[in-house]
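Figure S7 source data.
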Amino acid sequence: MASPPATSKTTNLEGYNTTKFLAASTKLLFRLTLLVALVLSFFFTFNNRPVSNGTTGSHRVLTTTHLSYAFYGSAASWEKEVRRSSTPRRVNGFSVLVTGAGGFVGTHCSLALKKRGDGVLGLDNFNSYYDPSLKRARQKLLKQHEIFIVEGDLNDGVLLSKLFDIVPFTHVLHLAAQAGVRYAMQNPQSYVRSNIAGFVNLLEVAKTADPQPSIVWASSSSVYGLNTENPFSESHRTDQPASLYAATKKAGEEIAHVYNHIYGLAITGLRFFTVYGPWGRPDMAYFFFTKDILLGKPINVYRTHDGKEVARDFTYIDDVVKGCLGAVDTVEKSTGKGGKKQAPAQLRIYNLGNTSPVSVDKLVSILETLLKVKAKKHIIKMPRNGDVPFTHANVSLAYKDFGYKPVTDLSTGLKKFVKWYVSYNGIKPRVRKGITGSN
Ligand SMILES: O=C(O)[C@H]1O[C@H](OP(=O)(O)OP(=O)(O)OC[C@H]2O[C@@H](n3ccc(=O)[nH]c3=O)[C@H](O)[C@@H]2O)[C@H](O)[C@@H](O)[C@H]1O
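Tokens for the predicted UGB complex:
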């Protein structure tokens, strides 16, 4: 008797096993997927934390936010909180989405808007570019003033659309960004993700929102780059950036032009000049100089390549806040509807500086006086890391259009910063020896 060909028998046998195996595997895979989905949604729902990798981490935050949006999207309490926070309390008050509300300028602007009766909803991804505990402390401060911050990323289009579905924002004050001039050499992609992709994403959502909001956003003095005309005016060259940070801010200005031109979004860009003050950013020189001087650590003070002192038009936070609110109050309504432009819309750009540059050496000597501690200064040549030798703002345009007039000199502003710094860090002043302690 001819036995069936071995191959055929084997094939049949294997076929049977394969089918059975496949069915079992599919079931297992299905169950596993279900389990993973359940665990993930539980994790992200109850542990909706930002990325801690020193970048804006938009990719992971994107996933987190989608999942938490899915959870919160059905949670009436979340929507209620969003509505409550963004509802104005004064007649004809604005409803403002403040991006980067957990940041330095974002926190101060949110408080000022709320104080005068506008509705404010914050958005922040609480990334760990610098110590997120400071951002959390600012969030707590905002919460005390009934300002809610939605935890999410600019690149999360679903979340942004959801917010615009819930709230008819009149304005967006867009302050979320990857800041810092020198860090751009370490983590260039984070600048592209936040300052370019994130900005485009926000404008994409804003263009189709009904009503279209008016937009005020933070550009930077760094766009003047290698410009040598002094003081810097808005009409000067901005096509020679010295850092990737500056290049992404300049790109933002061009992107704003496009969305204004095609979709009728009214957009105002503000070029901030080295903003400092209480609740400031620990990555900025005045902040870490204070910390290091108090700790007795050396600080690097830069000199230009031809040996000159470097200088900045340091601008105090309260002055900048007044400028931001002035811009919000004078930005016109956007003219688009249904994603289409109906008429020409306003497009503006302004310097918000102090009009009075001060050298970094002088900054250090003011800090020494305030802290009553001598700094251990290392004078070094400015590394080629994106820094420019000086900045100096001409603010006549902002003065003309919304009365912007900075009134705080560096000594006065730093005094307020130091007062906040020692109190925030629980440092006890020592009368004779100076203020010492650690943080
Ligand atoms: O106006 C802006 O658009 C930018 O302002 C800010 O950048 P900068 O003006 O560079 O401020 P900041 O780093 O505090 O350095 C201050 C001075 O200290 C010098 N500097 C710095 C570090 C150091 O170790 N030594 C030193 O001398 C340094 O050479 C400089 O002269 C914001 O960070 C940036 O996000 C952006 O908003």
